[in-house]
Structure formats: structure tokens, C-alpha cells
Amino acid sequence: MISELADRLDRAALTATAIPRLAAAAGLDPPAAYDVQRALVERRLARGERLAGVKMGLTSRAKMAQVGVDEVIWGHLTDGMRIADGGVLDLTRQIHARAEPEVAFLVTHSAVEAVAPALEVIDSRFEGFDFSLPDVIADNTSASGFVVGPWRPVPEGLGNLGVLLEVNGRVVQTGSTAAILGDPRRAFDAAVRLAGGRGVELRDGWIVLAGAATAAVPLNPGDHVRAVVEKLGTASFKAAK
Ligand code: 0L1
Ligand code: MG
């Protein structure tokens, strides 16, 4: 069953076709959903992608409320999801992608080496971007793409830096790194704990995406998307069709 569910999600992503929710009919609880996620990521690795880190999801109160839960979740990042800073996201390979501004950590010796402004592209494989907690866990927490800006040492006050999300030069969302579990470093600690609990130790050179500082915005062809994080700088990409 795990393998069949992973195949369905994998096919949905590969063909950019939304599918109905699957967790309730399959009786998936969160631990079984993480088994599906692992099987899903293994299909990417079998195609030659390599693990690049982990991402934290539902790290803001607003997102937890949206899914009706009180806990953070995590997913896998691969090199195939990475978009160069200033690079292009191919929207023909997305279903209904959205972008959200984040903070990324660089891992050395299981600790934070550096921090960077980042963008995550989320693209739920479920119809209407609508899912239960086990659904979104199985779907690798909607992970689809990510951009990391320039690395720098962790600055004073990381827990409350201003964040802007711009589309085509217009500010469309404003927020603070405080929206990420009160301080993005808590998201890093949660990544160590939760991934470690599933036998995944953070490796040197891996990236941890800490979570969104604002709501995500839908993407349209031609959009130039930029995250601006106080003291950290910017990360950007262009959405193309
Ligand atoms: O990165 C995230 O917080 C996404 C987690 C899943 C919820 C969503 O797709 O919005
Ligand atoms: Mg995110």
C-alpha cells in the first residue's frame, strides 16, 4: 500500500496533475504518511536526484490553523528541487505552485553554520491545494522547489527580522521571522529532532528551510518573485511557462 500511494503522488508530480486526497481512504496516520513520503523521495533518488536537506512546514500559527493542527511537519529536499538564485522556475512542471519567503540554514556538524534568505515553492499534489495532515506529510509537505540567497553568519536578532515578499517589484506580503515558531532557530532544532526521530541525521552541507514568514502567493507565468529579509538580503526567481 505504501508503495502504491507513493507511486500515485510521484506520478501526480511528474505529470503536473492534481489527484484526490488519499490518506483517509488508505487509513494513513502520520507515521505511515512519513513512510509514504520516504518511498516517494526514494523514487526521486532512483532517478538520480540527491538529498540536499530538509524543510520544515506548518511552522506558523496561520498555517497550522489552515490544516487544523498544532504541530510542525518536515519533508525532504533534493538537488532536483533547487533553483539558482535569480534562476527560472518552469511552471509547466507545476500544478498550482505558490511561493513563500523563508530563512535557510546551512548545516555543519549537525549545527547551524550560516543563514540565508530563501524562497520555497510549494505545489500540493492534491486537488484544490486541500489536504489533511497525513495527506500533506505523504506529499513531502508540498515541497517542489527552493531558492537560497547568499550565506552569511547568523546575525543578532534573527528571531525578529522584517520580511517582504515581492512579485514584479510590488510588495505582496509582509511579515517577520518571528512568524517561524517565534524564532527560526526553533525550526532548526525541530528539524534535528523530527528528522533524527526518523533516522535522518542532518549532513554537512545540507540545507534546512525553516518555514514561511508570510502566507504563500500563487504564481503566474512571467512573475519575478523576490524575498527580502532584513540583515540577510534577497533571494529571487522568475516563473516561466
Ligand atoms: O512549507 C510549508 O509550510 C508547506 C506545508 C504544507 C502546507 C502547504 O502546502 O501550505
Ligand atoms: Mg515552506
The description of the largest β-sheet is: 7 strands, mixed
Total helix count? 6
Q: Would you count the extended β strands for me? A: 12
Shape: globular
Question: Helical percent range?
Answer: 25-40%
Ligand list: hexanedioic acid, magnesium ion
CATH architecture: Alpha-Beta Complex
How do the SSEs run, as a string of H and E? HHHEHEEEEHEEEHEEEE
In CATH, what is the class?
Answer: Alpha Beta
Note the main attributes of this structure.
241 residues, alpha+beta, Fumarylacetoacetate hydrolase, domain 2, seven-stranded mixed sheet, five-stranded mixed sheet, 26% helix, binds hexanedioic acid, binds magnesium ion
Summarize the structure in words.
This protein is an alpha+beta fold. The protein has one domain: Alpha-Beta Complex (Fumarylacetoacetate hydrolase, domain 2), CATH 3.90.850. It is 26% helix and 34% strand. The protein is built from six helices and twelve strands. A hairpin with a 3-residue loop joins strand 11 (224-229) and strand 12. Helix 1 (2-15) packs across helix 3 (30-46). The mean pLDDT is 97. The protein binds hexanedioic acid and magnesium ion. Magnesium ion is lined by residues 55, 57, 100, 102, 120, 122, 211-212.
Give me a quick take on this structure.
By secondary structure, the chain is α+β, with helices and mostly antiparallel strands. It is 26% helix and 34% strand. It contains 6 helices and 12 strands.
Topology:
Layout: H1 2-15, H2 23-26, H3 30-46, E1 51-57, H4 61-67, E2 73-78, E3 87-90, E4 98-108, E5 111-122, H5 133-138, E6 143-148, E7 162-167, E8 170-176, H6 184-197, E9 207-212, E10 217-218, E11 224-229, E12 233-240
Parallel strand pairs: 1-9, 3-12
Antiparallel strand pairs: 1-2, 4-5, 4-9, 4-10, 5-6, 7-8, 7-11, 11-12
This protein binds hexanedioic acid (0L1) and magnesium ion.
Hexanedioic acid is lined by residues 57-58, 63, 120, 122, 124, 136, 141-142, 211-212.
